[in-house]
Amino acid sequence: QVEGRGCDCIVLWLDCDKEGENICFEVLDAVLPVMNKPRGTERTVYRAKFSSITDTDICNAMNHLGEPNRNEALSVDARQELDLRIGCAFTRFQTKYFQGKYGNLDSSLISFGPCQTPTLGFCVERHDKIQSFKPETYWVLQAKVNPEKESSLTLDWDRVRVFDREVAQMFLNITKMAKEAKVESVSKKEKVKQRPLALNTVEMLRVASAALGMGPQHAMQIAERLYTQGYISYPRTETTHYPENFDLKGCLRQQANNPYWAETVNALLSEGINRPRKGHDAGDHPPITPMRAATEAELGGDGWRLYEYITRHFIATVSADCKYLQTTIAFSIGPERFTCVGKVVTSPGFTEIMPWHSIPLEESLPHCEKGDLFPVGEIKLLEKQTSPPDYLTEAELITLMEKHGIGTDASIPVHINNICQRNYVTVESGRRLKPTNLGIVLVHGYYKIDAELVLPTIRSAVEKQLNLIALGKANYHQVLEHTLDIFKRKFHYFVDSIAGKTFYMQISFSPLAATGKPLSRCGKCHRFMKYIQAKPSRLHCSHCDDTYSLPQNGTIKLYKELRCPLDDFELVLWSSGSRGKSYPLCPYCYNHPPFRDMKKGMGCNECTHPTCQHSLSMLGIGQCVECENGVLVLDSTSGPKWKMACNKCNVVVHFFENAHKVRVSPETCDLCEAALVDVDFNKAKSPLPGDETQHSGCVFCDPVFQDLVELKHAAMRHPMHRGGQGKRQGRGRGKGRRPGGRLNPKKPKDKMAALAAYFV
């Protein structure tokens, strides 16, 4: 908006995908009101369409400016609103429901997502197949013939296998009677292994996971960085077909000097390139292509590995197909038929640049003709068992998601990353996704209540509707209302049905009443409540069947068995460690704010009770030196290393070390209106002048306290903290500063001057 003020026209250079189109209209909403008004029908809004950040592409985009696509932006708006509404409703309900019943869920958030949950469903479906698999025994007849004295050839049985031991033994007995194997036929056929299609996002993510060992989210981040640095074209594309006017030779020439593939590239340029195979044209961006040369030193690590693959793939698409000669020899040993196959490469083609696709080297087959006889060296029966499928790899999961229309090329990595972060699956060796106990029971629960919540069918149908919005063939409001109505009904059915279907959770997880250890007393029944340490940590009263949330990422302990004057609950003390801050809280007030000016999740250091000895009213000293709304509150548990901490941000002020007692006085400073502090020192350790042991004064203004106050920051957020005189040991006197009083802290008139005065 600042940049757009007073401009005559705007050219939108956002990413050229649906999400980028959506941001175009967010930009327009911000800048059009402050731009100069157009004269008559003069056009003022332009859209640049580009696929890479190169001189040619940028100049071409500038010479062919278009208009932003409103329909594509609306399809993104619809997807965002649907995912947010549906995800929030289900996530909030099931998180609160399960955390109120079970203590060892292994996750602080039991999330649901219209794409995330079907993604998890694929992983659990494979897990169920593995668990229900029953191995079967089968038998295979293996024969070896000796075409020469010191060589043998292993033959494959044409029947492949049989599942009946007696039948297999019969075939063995019959074939053992024959001493020679007769050649029934010899066939030679030239075959072709096609070069790959041009590279799109899904294929890149598959290869990155399967071959390079990179997670989809990580691979996408690296690809985006390579794109913004100008090394590759836009990495989000569904297209596998190059447009007719694409400069393939120009891209290939860029790679002519790289030592890894210079020989192959120069040979292609001199002999002529092959036109890439005709793939799918989704109408979005050209396939992912290297746009300029790079070295391993430039990109380093994973960046180079991904760039190398993209480049090799591109060179392969314009190379020749791999050609090989396949020889098949059919043998008969008695009445049974056997076969052996050999392959000899005649033209390696694209496999020179992608050697992992090359035809494996095999033993050469003997030269023979129909009717030739070879002595049988060995015939034996092998007993084997059918094996279960393995857990899904990320590459296989990406394939399933693409096949069923779950997510887009841009969002697929996010959905996979989400189910890992939520502790629904773990990534095992070979980047295989193994569902956790929590992921398994959730999916089984969805199947029991409403299978469509986890099956890909309904989301696939929604994605089709969203694509129709993007094409201008469906109405945004109608699709939104219809889909929300369906999920609203499903949500209500889910809520009504869940109570009777949670037996599957009880088998896997412990009820809250059987979890945790007794900590503090409930103010209602005066029995001990149990502290559940598993995230999210909380207190549970099994007698009242109530659960109380607690602050996270710290330790909780009983606070001197003191009680809240409002509800008689025993207070607990939350601490982030000796270097951090700590404060007491009432479990009931923390979840049910007692005063209008309080919010849920506030401890005693933010409580405005006028007389409670633990409240902000009694322990607040002055306005925070860092944030706008915070108040520095005395930590009465911190002695002898006394400190006060902001009740909003991470500022901690250490003061009066080794003092015997520190109290907040009801009186205030005349200069800055902060509360005065009464300090008692032991005579042997008193730093006060004249061997005094007691002093009352302002922490910020009193010269006696000047060297006894030290400011610490858990996070330095203000520019003035980065160096210069603003740092100076963090000690403060604060003479032009107005930190504010305890109950109603006043803002300083000039915050920058006040902060400067504090630090200087």
UniProtKB/TrEMBL annotation:
GO terms for biological process: DNA recombination; DNA repair; DNA topological change. This is DNA topoisomerase. Its EC number is 5.6.2.1. The gene is Top3b. Pfam families: Topoisom_bac (PF01131), Zn_ribbon_TOP3B (PF23546). Keywords: DNA-binding, Isomerase, Topoisomerase. Residues 716-749 are annotated as: Disordered. It catalyses: ATP-independent breakage of single-stranded DNA, followed by passage and rejoining. Introduces a single-strand break via transesterification at a target site in duplex DNA. Releases the supercoiling and torsional tension of DNA introduced during the DNA replication and transcription by transiently cleaving and rejoining one strand of the DNA duplex. The scissile phosphodiester is attacked by the catalytic tyrosine of the enzyme, resulting in the formation of a DNA-(5'-phosphotyrosyl)-enzyme intermediate and the expulsion of a 3'-OH DNA strand. The keyword DNA-binding applies. Residues 1-51 form the Toprim domain. GO terms for cellular component: nucleus. It is an enzyme of class 5 (isomerase). InterPro entries: Topo_IA, Topo_IA_2, Topo_IA_AS, Topo_IA_cen, Topo_IA_cen_sub1, Topo_IA_cen_sub2, Topo_IA_cen_sub3, Topo_IA_core_domain.
